[in-house]
Structures are given as C-alpha cells and as structure tokens.
Automatic annotation (TrEMBL):
Organism annotation: Allacma fusca
Biased composition (Basic and acidic residues): 32-42
Keywords: Signal
Domain CRAL-TRIO: start-end pairs: 46-223
Cleaved signal peptide residues: 1-19
GO cellular component, one term: cytoplasm
InterPro entries reported in the protein's UniProt record: CRAL-TRIO_dom, SEC14/CRAL-TRIO_domain
Ranges for region Disordered: 22-42
Protein name as annotated: CRAL-TRIO domain-containing protein
Keyword Signal found: yes
A Pfam family reported for this protein in Swiss-Prot or TrEMBL: CRAL_TRIO
Amino acid sequence: MKYFTVVVCIFATTLFGSAFGTGSQQEDNDQNGDRQKGNVLENEKSVKDHKGKYIYYLSGYDYDNRAVIVMEWGRWDIRSIAEEGGDGPEKFEKAVGHFVEKIQKGFFNKKANESETEDSIVVIIDFDGLNLRQIATANSLKLFMRSLAQLEGAFAQFAFGFIVNATPLVHQVIHASKPYMGKFLERMEIYGSNSRKWIPSILKKIPRSQLHPAYGGKSDFRPVAVFTMF
C-alpha cells in the first residue's frame, strides 16, 4: 500500500499538466422512472459498448429545490475502459467533460417559477465497490484521476455534496488530487463506509423522500431520471 501511495503521488504531479478535454455532444440514455435496488439499477439491461454500466441519476431535490445527483463512481469499471485501448479512454473523458458542461448550463436544475431557476446543484459520490484492481494499472489510475478531477470545472455550481464509502484507497487518491480539484473538494463532506455517520448529515440537507434507501431514503424511492455516463 505504501508503494501504491507513492505511485499515486507521482501520477498526480504528471497527469494534470494539460487541460482537460471538453465534452463532445452526445445524448444521455434517459431511463426515467427505472427502479433502484441496492446501489444499482434493478432492471439494468445488458447493452453493448458499456451502456448501462456507468450510471448516475437525478435522485430528487433538496430543501431549496436544488437538484441532487448521485454518481455511483465505485461501481464504474474504469479499468476495462482504460485497458481495452483504442479511443475508449478519450471518449470516457469527453463524456465526463460533457456531464460537467451540462451542470454548468443548468441541465439538471429545477425551475422554481417562471422567472427563477436554482443555479446550483448537490452531488453524492458513492465509492462503494471500488477496489485496488480498478486503479492498479498506470492507465486505469490515470483515467480515474483525470476524470474525477474534471468536476473542478463546475465547482461553482455545487452548493454542497457528500463523498461516501471513501476507503483509505480513495482517500489517497483524493489527497493526491487535491491541488487540482481543491475548490470542488472544499464543498464536499467526505465519509468512510459507516453509514451511521453520514446518513444523518445527508438527511439534514436532503428530504428522505428524495433519496435512495442506501442514503437514508424511503423504500419506495424512485429517481427522477437515470442516465449513463458512457
């Protein structure tokens, strides 16, 4: 693990020298109303080219009508994209860039009334399922860190957020990435795997009715909309 920590630090000083690519125009696969079970889609379909595997969803809205986005980053198979070669890694980075652009443009915002729209959103990033295998290669670690750091581009649009199920491995990556996404991280509350610590914090800011049970929500929860990142 000490060796891995050194590798992460070396990567962090070399990966972010160039500007991140901007997102290309693409359509999200909107599966509005699909039921969630556990931390994954109950009726996720087997689709070619990774569709359905890199899910994020509009969970609902907080007490101030800000959109709540949940990103199950720990379940995204980053290594498969990184190791398959071709233009997969570039396409994934562009997809994350496109997601950031959508945040900047208010794509997820709820219209409060005809003359007013909430400009900021809320995010829950869940690293449940992430293990060393996912980022154990040079290519997978590079893709993981560069993609995550792109969220810095929309830091001003994040009112607040939660990073949950952050293992020591995740903490190492976040620490190494802090110089490149510090403004985004300042708005996040970071928690480990003990949900008894972070569920009360989430419920102080987001109604139970707007959350999946994994985050303290109700058992009959349905997301507003489900998308695939890639």
